[in-house]
Amino acid sequence: MDRRSAVAWRRSKPIPVPISPDISVTARLETLNNSLLAWGFDDDVQNYVAAFKETHRRAKEDGCMTAWVSEREEWLARGDVILDDIEELVGGGALECFAAESMCELWRHISAAAFKAQYMMVVTQVYLDLGL
Questions:
Q1: Cα separation, 4 vs 1, whole angstroms
Q2: Is 85 inside any structural domain?
């Protein structure tokens, strides 16, 4: 089988992982998925916003905004590392082992996950910057 031919997909979340003869690419994508999920990635950004607003409200009511802000800053830093990992994966040529059609589908999922992660981070950063 030509390694650049169409591939099957494991429907993992947030990024489906192609079943590939290049196990290093598969492992990197699985690690990326694990990192996103451990970080708190939510495929439904509106869910994230609602949960974020609720934790923000509780932190204000409980008088623990300093700790909440510190936790959010650490969360943002972890998000930056994940986005750097995505950039390195996409820009480093690791995905070139796939046929164009498979690469397009993988890119669609990777870019959607990156966009949603950035959206989550922007919501958080705006709250921090405005001192809401």
A1: 8
A2: yes
Q: What is the CA radius of gyration of the chain?
A: 17
Residue 1 domain flag: no
- For 107-122, the pLDDT digits (tens) are 899 999 999 999 999 9
| Counted domains in the chain | 1
- DSSP letter, residue 94: G
* Domain span at 104: 9-130
Query: From start to end of the chain, where are the E strands?
Result: 8-10, 17-19
Please check whether residue 60 lies inside any domain of the structure.
Answer: yes
Q: What is the pTM of this model?
A: 0.83
- For 101, other C-beta atoms within 10 Å of its C-beta total 12
Those residues whose C-beta lies under 8 Å from the C-beta of residue 9, and which sit 6 or more positions away, are: 16, 17, 18, 19, 105
All residue ranges of the chain with pLDDT < 70 are 1-12, 21, 132
In a domain, residue 78? The reply is: yes
Question: Sign of the CA dihedral 115, 117, 118, 124?
Answer: positive
Instruction: Give the Cα separation of 72 and 20 in Å (integer).
Output: 36
